[in-house]
Amino acid sequence: MRSIWIIAKRELQSFFDSLIAYIMLVLFLGFSGFFTWIYGADVFLVGQASLQSFFDIAFWTLFFFIPAITMRMLAEEKKTGTIELLLTKAVTDREVVIGKFLACFLLVAIAIAFTLPYYITLANIGNVDHGAVWCGYLGLLLMSAAYVSIGLFTSSITNNQIVAFLLALFIGLFFHIIFNVLASNLTGFMGQLFHTLSLSVHFESLSRGVIDTKDVVYFLTIVGIGIVLAESNLAKRNLSN
To answer: What pTM was estimated for this model as a whole?
Structure first.
């Protein structure tokens, strides 16, 4: 754990040193804040306080922002050759991947934490369903973790950041939209299968305030698969060298 935390701190610091963290925070808060209060303007007209509009826009902004964060994590190090230097240290491939995963996840978690004033403001305006709000935040964190793992996987299979970004978006598109569309248009076993694979279905369940074990397991499974595949790609590269 010490090696993982050292790598995570180094990567998190590099985000702030290169201004990536500040740009991400400003853009995320700008988009989410603008659309939350524009589409959530009915909060001021009726006595119902809800953060559903925020969760809806965050669902999309994080879909684009996370691949932009993860695209350089392994691809850039492979391109510059620093990945070989890193792996000569007393760290394993798994520790490198998990450390980088933790750094990206913490950055996204910080961005999400900065939106808590939305919750506090709405709680002072009207009656908030606190359970639904916290479940919604849990859904954002789990979704973010899943997309971070996908981004790390795509970053591990190329040394081009743009390719890693586009691949992460392409893979994420299936979980974000395509599986849900297929589930809506198919019946029987295939319809149920795509319904189970759809990330939006599991996120919507959480954002409504329902914590189901299968939703949590779904996100954690994607995280685990993404980390294992990224680690496997690093291991294959070491063997080829």
So the answer is: 0.89
